[in-house]
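Lab meeting, item 3. Inverse folding demo.
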């Protein structure tokens, strides 16, 4: 059962991009505000690496650093208007301006600095309800946002209620625990979505469908795993293995290996297990299977998996 908002609720919504706050938790944000609780939204990126709508609206092909910065300003203005439609004050939004489509790379390269900043913000806010992207979301920024937030909370020993939302990937559309949203709140969500005009320019039908679907959440139960949970869910084809990498993120840091050099234990019939020697520290551990090759496909093929 979803928690009932009240005056003691301190809600933190983590949005990798402008519009995720509206799609993922626009109704919940309104309910917490009306119940007298407090809310914060962390906007991790400015959504500036969004080239096709920008090409369409600005009638240009080439997009450089200056154009991306201008697009980021536009999307920050849009999210401010969207939050106003939801009744959220500007000071309740905290922007990080991390690179759009670059959270995974930044996680691997600047992990300590990112976690240090998140820990400082968590200590200042101390939320008791956190809404964050689902680990199974196929957008790489969404999966990385989940990993970063979970590891920062683990290092701070925070144990709020954790709820996840899914935007990219239909497994949770209409599933999970459904938040009941009245017509007034739903209309405000529609207005908030229309404020993200850069996103509705080319994908208006899809974006409006996302905001109309039930607001569904999955609760994350935090606990220690067992050796059996170190089994990896993937069985890549042999011809792919030379191209694959495995990245492990835990409270102690990030490590990465090629598939053939990764600390794996063969279990037969294609099943593999991560060696317990690299999962020795307490706290959540997340592993990602990926290829470091350029591709026009922005979504994860395999994504992240929590192993303990």
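The presenter then showed the designed sequence:
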């Amino acid at each position: 059962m979803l928690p009932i908002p009240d005056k003691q609720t301190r809600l933190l919504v983590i949005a990798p991009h402008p519009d995720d706050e509206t799609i993922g938790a626009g109704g919940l944000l309104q309910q917490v505000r009306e119940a007298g609780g407090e809310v914060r939204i962390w906007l991790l990126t400015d959504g500036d690496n969004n080239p096709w709508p920008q090409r369409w609206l600005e009638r240009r092909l080439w997009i450089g650093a200056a154009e991306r910065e201008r697009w980021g300003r536009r999307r920050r203005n849009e999210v401010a208007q969207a939050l106003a439609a939801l009744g959220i004050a500007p000071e309740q939004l905290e922007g990080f301006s991390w690179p759009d489509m670059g959270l995974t790379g930044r996680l691997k390269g600047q992990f300590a600095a990112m976690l240090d900043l998140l820990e400082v913000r968590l200590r200042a806010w101390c939320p008791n309800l956190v809404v964050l992207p689902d680990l199974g979301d196929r957008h790489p920024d969404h999966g990385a946002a989940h990993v970063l937030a979970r590891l920062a909370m683990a290092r701070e020993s925070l144990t709020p209620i954790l709820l996840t939302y899914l935007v990219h990937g239909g497994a949770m559309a209409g599933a999970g625990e459904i938040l009941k949203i009245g017509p007034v709140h739903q209309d405000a969500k529609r207005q908030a979505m229309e404020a993200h005009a850069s996103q509705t320019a080319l994908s208006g039908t899809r974006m409006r469908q996302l905001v109309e679907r039930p607001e569904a959440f999955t609760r994350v139960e935090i606990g220690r795993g067992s050796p059996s949970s170190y089994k990896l869910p993937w069985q890549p084809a042999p011809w792919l293995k030379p191209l694959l990498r495995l990245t492990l993120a835990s409270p102690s840091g990030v490590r990465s290996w090629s598939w053939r050099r990764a600390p794996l234990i063969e279990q037969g019939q294609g099943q593999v297990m991560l060696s317990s020697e690299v999962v020795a520290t307490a706290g959540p551990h997340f592993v990602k299977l990926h290829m470091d090759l350029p591709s026009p496909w922005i979504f994860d093929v395999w994504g992240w998996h929590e192993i303990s």
